[in-house]
Structure formats: C-alpha cells, structure tokens
C-alpha cells in the first residue's frame, strides 16, 4: 500500500504575545500580518498570511483570555520554550498536510503525537499533537494536519506579496530525522542538515527583496 504523501502547508512562528510575533515578522519581512483567530482547545490565537498557493505563515501565541484544558501545542507551556521566546519570537515549527492523518501517523516510525480535532471559528481540522504538547525532534519534524475538503484555508488569507523559496532545517540527528520524513514527505524547497540544535530558517521573497525568517 502506498503511504499518504504529505505537502508543505505552513510555517509557525511562536511568541509570548501576538504583538511581539507580528513585530518580529515585520522586522524580518517588512510586512504586517493581520489577525487570524483563536483555538479554544489549545488556549492560543494567531495571525495569518499567504506564502504562496496553499502555503501560509502563522504567528501563534498563548491567548490570555483562554485557559486550556490540556497542554498547549508547540511546547508553549514548556518553561524552556518560554525562556527562548522571552529573548525573541522564533520560527519553531513547520506543518505538512496529509489526506488521511490517522493513516499517515501509522506510517511514521516515530512518536509524533495523536490526531486531535481543533477549531478556529467555523473552520475545524485534525492535527498531530503529543499529549504533553511537545514537538517531535524539537520542531524539526513537522506537525501533520488534515484539512476538511474544500478550498485550502490559505485562499482566504491576506496576500502581502511574500513567497516561500526555501526552508532549511537543522538537527543534531539529521539522519534519523530524514529517515522519519522519508515515508511521507519530499519537497525540493525543504532541506535537512546536521547542526548543534534544532533550527529552522525560511528564505522568503518579499516586496522588499529576499529575506530570512528565523
């Protein structure tokens, strides 16, 4: 049986507040991201913009108006992540979409989380989230998402003239990371390599020229 293939879906910048995250993107890319919405289950809210066809950028932060019933995703409740984000917002994770999330999770020889039903306004979807809210490979391995049928959510987001060109992913165990990705994902825009710690760098073409988002 051919495993479900994953496609690059979006990049996630985390911040302690949305204001800090939006300011970080403005400094890096020269654009101001508009508001998105809230995720009641996860106790977060976001801002969103397109990075191309069916690809987008998300800035996410804890929502002070919501107390979640579970650990927030993207390690946002981890004190170590809090310390990192206190220094500066960061590009911490990437997300790929799959046609059937449960089937994709069975094909991955790593513990990358369980399928969780999440909503933002009238939109709902399935996404892989470990019970403790952590990120596999410290964010170097992607979160998996299954959108409902219909237009991709990016089609309703602001187009500020930014396009993703390249996503570079570093991790101390890059060979194991590449092996975990191989069953589901292959995209020339995404490269993996070794490094002292998990790190993501996105090269994005903007109205002001090519910029780097970290």
From TrEMBL:
Return the InterPro entries for the record: Glyas_Bleomycin-R_OHBP_Dase (IPR029068), Glyoxalase-like_dom (IPR025870)
Top-rank taxon of the source lineage equals Bacteria
Residue stretches making up the Glyoxalase-like domain: 8-183
Which Pfam families does this one have?
Answer: Glyoxalase_3 (PF13468)
What this protein is called in its record is: Glyoxalase-like domain-containing protein
Write down the species: Bradyrhizobium icense
């Amino acid at each position: 049986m051919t495993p479900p293939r994953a496609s690059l879906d979006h990049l996630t910048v985390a911040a302690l507040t949305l204001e800090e995250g939006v300011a970080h993107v403005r400094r890096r890319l020269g654009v101001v991201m508009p508001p998105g919405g809230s995720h009641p289950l996860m106790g977060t809210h976001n801002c969103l913009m397109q990075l191309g066809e069916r690809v987008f950028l998300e800035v996410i932060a804890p929502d002070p108006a919501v107390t979640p019933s579970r650990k927030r995703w993207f390690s946002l409740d981890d004190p170590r992540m809090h310390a990192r984000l206190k220094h500066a917002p960061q590009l911490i994770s990437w997300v790929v979409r799959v046609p059937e999330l449960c089937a994709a999770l069975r094909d991955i020889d790593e513990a990358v989380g369980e399928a969780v039903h999440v909503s933002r306004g009238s939109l709902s979807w399935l996404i892989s989230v470990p019970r403790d809210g952590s990120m596999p490979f410290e964010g170097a391995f992607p979160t998996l998402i299954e959108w409902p049928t219909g237009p991709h959510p990016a089609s309703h987001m602001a187009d500020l003239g930014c396009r993703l060109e390249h996503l570079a992913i570093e991790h101390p165990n890059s060979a194991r990371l590449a092996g975990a990705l191989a069953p589901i994902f292959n995209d020339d825009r995404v490269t993996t390599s070794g490094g002292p710690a998990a790190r993501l760098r996105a090269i994005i073409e903007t109205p002001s020229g090519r910029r780097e988002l970290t």
